[in-house]
Design a protein that fits this description.
This protein is of the alpha+beta class. Helix content is about 35%, strand content about 20%. The longest helix has 13 residues.
Amino acid sequence: MEKSGKIWVQNAMSETQENPFDGWVTIQEAGDIVNRNQATVRYWARMGRITAYPIGSRGLQVVNVEEVKEYSEQAQRLTPQKSNSEKSD
């Protein structure tokens, strides 16, 4: 993928068209972008927090990078609540 975010693909008819996956990256790339482990991004997709689409037959999935960034920011704002047994007086 080019750094500009635009890729041009060539179809069977030798016509050049804009990449329909512009803005979509692999789960591993998404993890790198938001500084999270790819297992975390996979978990978010499995739990329905972000949308992932399978590509091909080898288990590769793509996610929308903006959706991942947005959810990652939201997840960072969430802090675990202490249970009553952990609170001290």
